[in-house]
Amino acid sequence: MKVYFCGSIRGGRDDVLVYRKIVNKLQSYGSVLTEHVSSSELSERGEDAAAAGDRAIHDRDVDWLRQSDVVVAEVTQPSLGVGYELGRAVDMKKKIFCLFRPSSGRRLSAMIRGADDGELFVVRDYSEDEVENVLEEFFSNLKRT
Fold first, then answer.
1. 6: closest CA among 130, 127, 121?
2. What's 79-117 look like in SS3?
3. What are the start-end ranges of the E strands in the chain?
4. Which one of 68, 69, 84, 135 is CB 3.0 to 4.6 Å from 4, fit for a cystine?
5. pTM reported for the whole predicted model
């Protein structure tokens, strides 16, 4: 299984440790095409775009998105890029699982929360200590369908 993980990069790296925990768990289900999102080496300046440029990053990531079997997004930290990726994934009819931590004090965008249809697009509130169990439940249900 190929998993596309979405998390904020240029929108802020406050949740990178949570991303690492999520990616570690996702790797037990298959190949995580975007594991670099969880790297603490990656700052909010993003990847070194000087060599390849933003277009190359965009095109590579959209290609990975096309290849993916499922999209998992941590959406607590607002991010234009994650929102874009989710919109593209919806258009591609990908199975999408969004994770949001209410303890952050933020409110999730209505465009994300309102997209939850319980089937192709699922939003789940969670706390950091239960993230592995939440992912286990999602992937167990995914295998049954």
1. 121
2. CHHHHHHHHHHHHCCCEEEEEECHHHCCCCCHHHHCCCC
3. 2-6, 31-32, 70-74, 95-100, 121-125
4. 68
5. 0.95
The pLDDT tens digits of the residues spanning 98-117 come to 999 999 999 999 999 999 99
d(CA 111, CA 64): 23
Sheet holding 121-125, edge to edge: 31-32, 2-6, 70-74, 95-100, 121-125
* Residues 57/85, Cβ–Cβ less than 8 Å: no
Q: What residues form DSSP beta bridges with 5?
A: 72
Q: Residue 35 corresponds to which amino acid?
A: E
The Cα-based distances of 90 to 24, 40, 112, 114 in angstroms read 25, 28, 11, 13
